[in-house]
Specification:
Layout (H helix, E strand, L loop, with lengths): L2 H11 L1 H19 L8 E6 L4 E5 L6 E4 L5 E3 L1 E4 L5 E4 L5 E5 L5 E3 L8 E7 L11 H19 L4 E4 L6 H19 L4 H5 L4 E6 L4 E5 L2 E6 L11 H9 L2
Helix pairs in contact: 1-2, 3-4, 4-6
């Protein structure tokens, strides 16, 4: 059954879900049609393979988070044939495709051709929450520990944080540790990880990641919220570049 039919079937079987489905369709295409919708929707979805995620269109930029990962992906919408919308990650790779009739297709490394997803209900907004200096320090220490275990050697995480950037730097540290864990799982991971042993987080005007002189430098842009830090995909690409 296609994703559009799945959503329609859910709405028919569960009238309470019909309003959610309608709002999701309106929110996804309000800019494309020029409609005036009070607020974009928020929903939780499940894929054919059983992977669940939250799609949040209530923020200045669309966001997606899988239940089995702490990372929030910032999505960049772009028009596609037949009036569809393709949501891409910060590398320009497709993550989600939405059709005008409300169907959704999720793309991943395991399913590059995509798999249909269906609406599973409402979800919690994906937001960057304020953190105390102590909480930020603990998050950095935890991320450093996870990265060190994956690399089988000390991996120092250090930061220059201000009140405006502290929460974003804490989130970037978590995302960076995920990238290092993924890097360690590669066949050539040991050689790639030998290229650096420090990760430094700094505040700047534009999010970026750079590997130089044995240090992985991550720049965050607090004014952009969660969109102001590189994704684990981008960090992984920088760490594997020759």
């Amino acid at each position: 059954m296609g994703a559009a039919l799945v959503v329609a079937a859910i709405a028919a079987a569960h009238p309470a879900s019909a309003g959610i489905a309608d709002k999701l369709r309106e929110g996804l295409f309000k800019q494309h049609r020029g409609d005036e919708v009070p607020g974009p929707p928020l929903g939780r979805y499940v894929s054919e393979e059983g992977r669940t995620f939250t799609l949040d269109l209530t923020q200045p930029v669309p966001m997606l988070k899988f239940d089995d990962s702490p990372e929030v992906y910032v999505l960049l919408p772009s028009p596609a044939p037949r009036g569809d919308v393709i949501y891409k990650n910060d590398l320009g790779e497709p993550v989600l495709r939405a059709t005008r009739v409300g169907g959704f297709t999720l793309f991943s490394e395991d399913r590059p051709n995509g798999e249909a997803v269906s609406l599973a209900g409402g979800g919690a907004p994906l937001r960057l929450l304020p953190m105390s200096p102590q909480a930020v320090f603990e998050r950095l220490a935890q991320a450093s520990l996870r990265a060190s275990r994956a690399a089988h050697r000390p991996m120092l995480f250090e930061a220059e944080a201000s009140p405006a950037s502290s929460s974003l730097i804490a989130d970037a540290a978590t995302v960076t540790s995920l990238a290092i864990i993924r890097l360690a799982q590669r066949a050539d991971g040991r050689n790639l990880l030998a290229r650096f042993n420090r990760v430094r987080f700094e505040e700047g005007k534009k999010a970026s990641a750079q590997l130089k002189g044995g240090m992985l430098r991550i720049v965050v842009a607090p004014s952009q919220g969660l969109a102001g830090r590189p994704s684990s995909d981008r960090i992984l690409k920088v760490a594997t570049a020759r």
